[in-house]
Design brief:
By secondary structure, the protein is of the alpha/beta class. Helices cover 30% and strands 27% of the residues. Helix 1 runs parallel beside helix 2 and helix 8 packs parallel to helix 12. The radius of gyration is 21 Å and the shape is elongated. The chain binds uridine-diphosphate-N-acetylglucosamine (UD1). The site of uridine-diphosphate-N-acetylglucosamine has 20 residues, from helix 5 and helix 6.
Length: 421
């Protein structure tokens, strides 16, 4: 596969309209959750991103048949799915781990490769494993795989998470729906993605209370049925467009963007000087002058999302004033700061705090995307840099932002994709 990069000529004010597709972090989990019922489930509002293809491949290897349309996917789940998720797929995409809960619950066993570290820090699985053990499964690591087994089925339990982990909440929720009796999950994650997954499961016949709160109560049922569901819009993509408008002093109408999923980031943007209004199907973000700097601490939902942290650091790099950004979710997430410094940003990192002194303008240079969100943050920085910025490894960005370069062009940015031999 040819390696691609983005070439950005800075200086454009982004103006116009964009449409936000379904949420990556929701649709991948819904795809994994179809394993819970034999038969054909359809998921709509599916974004055109490579991670959807990776999840489709994983499900195919588990015996499912997949039909992929432009914005939907239909998954035909067999009566007896396989139970092994191989390392070659799991290493490409951590959301592969989301087949663990459904497989243990439905098949009674799962062998899922350990995803390993990635560019945003270590990402444990201990909460997933402890929770499955509470539900009566045995689980251990062997030869790089989590091997979990519950041949006589799972039994409801009271689970309390040390941290409201998104992935652990999802795996335990998708396991508990088929467990015997009642399960409670305390300190559960409350992200809109969890609510979407819960509603998907309810439409399959699951009984779940407390979605969107820190306590989930699940009454297990003996079987679920296939469903047809439309995914929620991607709040991180929406937030990225909102930051792009504010940073470039632009005016973007984001169709499909849901303000209620982004209350804290939009409040922060308003305090930076952005004018945010609701439209009939989304939000409009405008900015006239230079943004004011904004202090931010990332937190689990409803706090400021860690996935928008690179965008807020990029904004602060060109804002009026000094800011502190504190990362509380992934310890490795400041790695991309070194790239931003190559563009002239004045940033000092001390542990999980970044102190940023805003300057008038960044200066274009070659940089590398280390993960999806860091890549998007660097593109935004390139848009407000003097001259040319090359963002290498743009395939990371394409994993989370369908047609990003093309959408930027439509808003007036000078961004082109280049193939690298
Ligand atoms: C998901 C999102 C990611 C987002 C993150 C937080 C997907 C595919 N990814 O990741 O984009 O940034 O939520 O909103 O949906 N932890 C443990 N042990 C565990 C599980 C987690 O220590 O068993 C720690 C992690 O190392 C991390 C923190 O908990 O420091 C949060 O992780 P988690 O909420 O689980 O994130 P993911 O589900 O991996």
């Amino acid at each position: 596969m040819a390696v691609e990069r983005f070439r950005i000529v800075g200086g454009a004010r982004l103006c116009g309209e964009v449409k936000v597709a379904g949420a990556k972090n929701s649709v991948l989990k819904l795809m994994a959750a179809t394993l819970l019922a034999p038969g054909k489930s359809t998921i709509r509002n599916v974004p055109e991103i490579v991670d959807v293809e990776i999840m489709a491949e994983l499900l195919t290897r588990l015996g499912c048949s997949i039909e992929r349309g432009k914005d939907f996917v239909t998954i035909d789940v067999p009566v007896a799915p396989g139970h092994r998720a191989e390392y070659d797929l799991v290493r490409k995409m951590r959301a592969s781990i989301n087949v663990l809960g459904p497989l243990v619950a439905r098949v009674g066993q799962a062998e899922v490769a350990l995803p390993g570290g990635d560019a945003i820090g270590s990402r444990g699985l201990d909460f997933h494993i402890k929770g499955l053990e509470s539900l009566g499964a045995t689980a251990h690591n062997e030869h790089g795989y989590v091997i979990a087994s519950a041949p006589s089925g799972l039994t409801g339990a009271e689970i309390s998470l040390e941290f409201p982990s998104v992935g652990a909440t999802e795996n335990l929720l998708t396991a508990a729906v088929l467990a015997k009796g009642r399960t409670t999950i305390d300190n559960a994650a409350r992200e809109p993605d969890i609510v979407d997954l819960g509603n998907f499961l309810i439409s399959m016949g699951a009984q779940i209370e407390g979605l969107g709160t820190p306590k989930l109560t699940i009454h297990g049922v003996s079987q679920l049925h296939p469903t047809d569901h439309t995914t929620i819009p991607d709040r991180i993509v929406t937030g990225t467009w909102a930051f792009a408008a504010a940073m470039t002093r632009g005016d973007i109408t984001i169709h499909g963007g849901r303000a209620q999923d982004l209350e804290v980031p939009l409040e922060k943007l308003a305090s930076a000087g952005a004018i945010i209004t609701s439209t009939n199907d989304g939000i409009r973000v405008r900015m006239e002058g230079r943004p004011q700097s904004i202090d931010v601490a990332t937190l689990p939902y409803p706090g400021f999302p860690t996935d928008l942290q690179p965008m807020v650091i990029s904004l602060n790099a060109i804002a009026d004033g000094d800011a502190i950004v504190t990362e509380n979710v992934f310890e490795g997430r400041f790695m991309f700061v070194n790239e931003l410094v190559r563009l002239g940003a004045q940033i000092n990192v001390d542990g999980h705090h970044a102190a940023i002194r805003g300057i008038e303008q960044l200066s274009g240079a070659p940089v590398a995307a280390t993960d999806i969100r860091a890549g998007a943050g660097l593109v935004l920085a390139g848009l407000v840099s003097d001259g040319i910025t090359i963002v290498e490894d743009s395939s990371h960005i394409d994993r989370g932002y369908p047609h990003f370069a093309e959408q930027l062009q439509a808003l007036g940015a000078d961004v082109t994709r280049e193939s690298v031999d």
